[in-house]
Design brief:
about 375 residues, alpha/beta, Rossmann fold, three-stranded antiparallel β-sheet
C-alpha cells in the first residue's frame, strides 16, 4: 500500500491496483475509531462508485467498491492514537512529552508498548538524604557493565541520564544534587535486564528516582503525588533504603519513616487483612560502613535498631529481606565558601551490597 501523510493530515491509498496492504479493516469496525482519532464525526461520502472516498475532517481514505470496505494500516492508526500513561492510565495526546495527570514521561508507555511482555516496575524509596539517587545510579551503571553476569540495555536515551549524572558527580568527588520535589524533573530509567545464560528470560524494568520530600508529603497527605500512589500500587518489587548509621546512633527517624512507608504500602495493596503481602521488598541498610555489625548480621541489626519496622514486616509482609549496603569508601568534609556549611566529599567509592538486593528481587519476579 502506498500512503503518505501531508500537512492536511490526508491518508492516500490505491487499493484497487495494489494488494500488499498490511491489514484490512471493515468500514463498520474502523469508522468509529477514525472519527475519534482523526478529529470528530464529520463524514463526507464520495458516492457509490468504484473509488468512493470517505473524508473525516480532512483525512481521506479511499475505498474499494462503494463504502463496503476501507483499508488502512496499523501505522496510520497508531500515528494519531492517544498515548496511554503506563503509570496512571490517563490518555494523552500523541505528541505529549509528559502525562497530563501524573507528569510521568509518555516515552515510557510508547517504549513499553513495543515489547511483547508486561513491564515490571521496581520502586526505590526512602527518606530524604538516605542515598536513593546515588544507589540507583550506581546500580544501573553496574548492570550496564555486566556486573553479576547481568546484561542491561537502556530503552531510550532518557534512561541513561540518572546513571550519567551520578557517575559524573562522583568522578569529581561530589555527591549529586538532591532530587527536586517536582515530578517533571525526576529521572526515569527503563531497562531490559537478563542474565547472560542460555534461555534466560528478559525482564523490562522501570525504575524512577523519587524525591524523599515527595514521599514524605505523600505519606502525610495521600494522593498529593498521584504518580507515587500509582507507582507503588503497580510495583512488582520495592527497594526501601533505611539510614543504618542514624539507627545505630539511636535515632528513631529511620524506624518511623520505614514504618509509615510500609503502612502506606499495606493500605494500597490488594491483599486481604488475613493474608500477607507477597510483593518482594528489599530493605537496604544504607551507610553500613559506619556500623560494621550490619554486615555480620543484618537481620539481627534490624531487629535491634529498627524494631517497629521488623514487627510490621513479620505481621503483614511475607517476602522481606534485609541487606547491608555501602557506597562511599571514605568521606572528607569541607566548608562551602558561599553558604558556610559543611559539605561531605566522597574521596573514593567502595561498593558493597549494591547488586545483591536487586538480584534477590529479580529472582522473585
Amino acid at each position: 500500500m502506498k500512503h503518505r501523510r501531508d500537512a492536511g493530515a490526508t491518508i492516500w491509498g490505491d487499493l484497487h491496483r495494489r494488494r500488499h496492504h498490511r491489514r484490512g479493516y471493515s468500514l463498520g469496525a474502523v469508522f468509529g475509531d477514525l472519527c475519534r482519532l482523526l478529529g470528530g464525526p464529520m463524514l463526507r461520502c464520495g458516492g457509490h462508485r468504484r473509488d468512493a472516498g470517505v473524508t473525516i475532517r480532512g483525512a481521506t481514505i479511499w475505498g474499494r467498491h462503494s463504502l463496503e470496505e476501507v483499508h488502512v494500516t496499523t501505522e496510520q492508526l497508531d500515528a494519531t492514537a492517544d498515548t496511554q500513561c503506563l503509570i496512571c492510565g490517563a490518555e494523552n495526546p500523541p505528541d505529549a512529552l509528559l502525562c497530563e495527570e501524573c507528569y510521568a514521561p509518555t516515552a515510557i508507555g510508547r517504549d513499553a508498548a513495543v515489547q511483547d511482555r508486561e513491564p515490571k516496575i521496581i520502586s526505590v524509596i526512602g527518606d530524604s538524604n538516605v542515598g536513593k539517587t546515588v544507589y540507583l545510579g550506581l546500580l544501573l551503571d553496574m548492570l550496564t557493565q555486566r556486573a553479576g553476569d547481568f546484561e542491561a540495555v537502556p530503552k531510550g536515551a532518557y534512561s541513561v541520564d540518572l546513571q550519567q549524572n551520578v557517575i559524573s558527580h562522583l568522578s569529581r568527588r561530589m555527591f549529586p544534587p538532591k532530587t527536586p520535589m517536582e515530578v517533571n524533573q525526576w529521572h526515569w530509567a527503563y531497562y531490559q535486564v537478563r542474565r547472560r545464560v542460555r534461555d534466560a528470560p528478559c525482564v523490562d524494568l522501570i525504575m524512577p528516582d523519587m524525591a524523599g520530600e515527595s514521599l514524605a508529603a505523600e505519606l502525610v497527605t495521600p494522593q498529593t503525588f498521584r504518580v507515587i500512589h500509582s507507582l507503588l500500587k503497580k510495583s512488582s518489587g520495592i527497594m526501601m533504603l533505611v539510614d543504618a548509621a542514624l539507627a545505630a546512633n539511636g535515632s528513631t527517624q529511620p524506624d518511623f519513616f520505614a514504618l509509615k512507608m510500609l503502612s502506606y504500602i499495606d493500605g494500597i495493596s490488594a491483599a486481604k487483612r488475613g493474608q500477607g503481602i507477597q510483593t518482594p521488598i528489599a530493605v537496604l541498610l544504607c551507610k553500613a560502613d559506619h556500623c560494621p555489625e550490619c554486615f555480620d548480621d543484618p537481620h539481627g541489626f534490624a531487629r535491634a535498631n529498627l524494631n517497629r519496622l521488623w514487627n510490621l514486616c513479620e505481621a503483614r509482609f511475607e517476602n522481606v529481606a534485609f541487606f547491608p549496603t555501602s557506597v562511599a569508601g571514605s568521606l572528607g568534609y569541607g566548608m562551602s565558601e558561599d553558604e558556610q556549611y559543611v559539605v561531605p566529599i566522597p574521596l573514593h567509592t567502595a561498593l558493597r551490597g549494591v547488586l545483591e538486593p536487586f538480584e534477590w528481587i529479580i529472582d522473585r519476579l
